[in-house]
Design brief:
By secondary structure, the protein is mainly beta. It is built from 1 helix and 8 strands, in the order ββββββββα. The longest helix is centred in the last third of the chain and has 10 residues.
């Protein structure tokens, strides 16, 4: 059997997580608005996530490229959409993108200058066809 590729550090112990298990609540995500900080590291090819800092952890994975501060994007939007069966919606970035190609990510992007502030509701629809209700 292959080793787990995602581990959670809970109460100081590393625990494997199944693909279908929701880790949002385990990492401290609550019903009220975030942000909820998650610390991460890569250890022997495994991604380790924790709600608290640990030796070697950062809030940015070492495989993530540095984000340019002069890209002209002033506001980015990402939506973590979790269904009642605790499944999280992810979309895959195109392999032709210059920054973070081919990665699975929450639906999101930057707001266009003429977009309304309700962009967090429209991004999932625009990227995946999922329509979110109001309220």
């Amino acid at each position: 059997m292959a080793a787990a590729r995602l581990l959670l550090r809970l109460a100081g112990r590393l625990e494997s997580v199944s693909f279908t298990q929701s880790v949002c609540s385990l990492l401290g995500a609550r019903q009220e608005p975030g942000p909820w900080h998650t610390h991460c590291s890569l250890e022997r090819g495994q991604m380790v996530l924790s709600s608290t800092s640990f030796p070697g952890a950062s809030e940015r994975l070492p495989i993530q490229p540095e984000i340019s501060t002069n890209r002209g994007v002033e506001l980015g939007v990402a939506v973590i959409l979790q269904s009642s069966d605790q499944t999280v919606l992810l979309t895959r970035r195109a392999c032709t993108l210059r920054v973070s190609p081919n990665l699975w990510v929450p639906p999101g992007g930057h707001m266009e200058p003429d977009e309304e502030v309700n962009s967090p509701r429209t991004q999932p629809r625009d990227l995946s066809g999922v329509t979110l209700g109001v309220g």
